[in-house]
């Protein structure tokens, strides 16, 4: 990973997560362009990348930018900040009060129930700790 790369790590076995990651990937406009990578293959592409644990990556989306790491709603917000307006504005809102106060609990509800969304499969079910 070069010093300026930004990576969105998602669950590549989850159809819902993959669809969402590809959706945001198509909207990235900043150079260098971030990359969306399934956690199942992140170490194949970057063998020396320090990542969260496998359990953490299976339970939440992650944004890695240099040594900065965000999970959950803040990861989504960071990924949106790399897009153009209006999605960049949504990213700013997700990082700012009062939206930030409800963003993480809402993310947890969506993550817990992602297997119920369109395109999802049983592989989308979040594993218990």
The tally of beta strands, per DSSP, is: 4
- SSE run: EHEHHEEHHH
- pLDDT average, as an integer? 87
Number of helices: 6
The portion of residues assigned to helices is 40-55%
Strand order of the largest sheet: 2-1-3-4
Shape: globular
Instruction: Return Rg in Å.
Output: 14 Å
Biggest pleated-sheet summary:
4 strands, mixed
- Number of domains in the coordinates? 1
The chain-level structural class is: alpha+beta
Beta-strand residue percentage: 5-15%
Uncertain ranges: none
Distance between the termini: 29 Å
Structure description:
The protein is an alpha+beta fold and 129 residues long. The protein has helices spanning 15-25, 42-45, 54-59, 72-81, 87-95, 99-112; strands at residues 6-10, 35-38, 62-65, 68-71. It contains 6 helices and 4 strands, in the order βαβααββααα. The chain has a 4-stranded mixed β-sheet with strand order 2-1-3-4, covered by helices on one side. Helix 4 (72-81) runs antiparallel to helix 5. The model has no long low-confidence stretch (mean pLDDT 87).
Q: Could you outline the blueprint of secondary structure elements for this entry?
A:
Blueprint: E1 6-10, H1 15-25, E2 35-38, H2 42-45, H3 54-59, E3 62-65, E4 68-71, H4 72-81, H5 87-95, H6 99-112
Parallel strand pairs: 1-2
Antiparallel strand pairs: 1-3, 3-4
Helix pairs in contact: 4-5
Q: What is this structure, in a nutshell?
A:
This protein has one domain (6-124).
């Amino acid at each position: 990973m070069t010093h300026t790369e930004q990576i969105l790590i998602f669950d590549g076995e989850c159809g819902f997560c993959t669809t969402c990651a590809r959706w945001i990937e198509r909207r990235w406009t900043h150079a260098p362009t971030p990359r969306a990578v399934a956690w199942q293959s992140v170490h194949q592409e970057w063998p020396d990348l320090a990542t969260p644990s496998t359990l953490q990556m299976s339970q939440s989306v992650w944004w890695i930018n240099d040594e900065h790491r965000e999970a959950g709603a803040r990861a989504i917000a960071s990924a949106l900040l790399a897009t153009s307006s209006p999605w960049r504005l949504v990213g700013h809102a997700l990082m700012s009060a009062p939206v930030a106060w409800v963003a993480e609990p809402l993310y947890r509800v969506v993550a817990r129930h992602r297997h119920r969304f369109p395109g999802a499969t049983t592989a989308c079910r979040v594993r218990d700790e």
